[in-house]
Amino acid sequence: xxxxxxxxxxxxxxxxxxxxxxxxxxxxxxxxxxxxxxxxxxxxxxxxxxxxxxxxxxxxxxxxxxxxxxxxxxxxxxxxxxxxxxxxxxxxxxxxxxxxxxxxxxxxxxxxxxxxxxxxxxxxxxxxxxxxxxxxxxxxxxxxxxxxxxxxxxxxxxxxxxxxxxxxxxxxxxxxxxxxxxxxxxxxxxxxxxxxxxxxxxxxxxxxxxxxxxxxxxxxxxxxxxxxxxxxxxxxxxxxxxxxxxxxxxxxxxxxxxxxxxxxxxxx
Length: 268
Fold this sequence. Notes:
By secondary structure, the protein is α/β, with parallel strands linked by helices. Helices cover 29% and strands 17% of the residues. The radius of gyration is 19 Å and the shape is globular.
């Protein structure tokens, strides 16, 4: 079955779309630096965050603010907080932080002034209700056109991981702006390698992606800028210096030694 990139060919600019040059926090509008989400270091120290024209990764510990920032950027760009394209209008619960109201998106400064022709916000934690909404939308379409962009099959008839890969290979057309929050959540290591292949295809077809992830496999993508969320805010970091890479490498070099350290204080 042909992928969307084959069905909708577009001219290929050099590696990435570069639709958004930077994200700015309008600090003068922040009401209180001591309340969430403005007290998170990733937000508190944010001024201007340049984005890579191809792929920008956000990494950091749970609670470091990477998903909060990604969600706010998605909402600022017109996507629903729970995920989907700009044409989706649904919410199971309104829990987004309001940070989006304090962000500005810089669209100039890149090599292209073109706008994206496709877009999607994927977040792992709301993928199931998102696919339920997809099913509701598709059931309203003419029968012979249902699931045309989803491999002619409901996402709920696939596993979580298979549904995500279908989204990546069938729904996303390229020349798009895509935001992914922990896309590795449902994927095996082998499937994450497959995602790298499709990610690169999207980049070659003029797309720009911002991805929050813990995956050392996805972070290895070469045409990318990595920001680590820490106590000093968002800092650029080399792949080899990310915690995801460093801890995984240390574990694989000596799992028994790592286990001994982890269980040192436990009684036999």
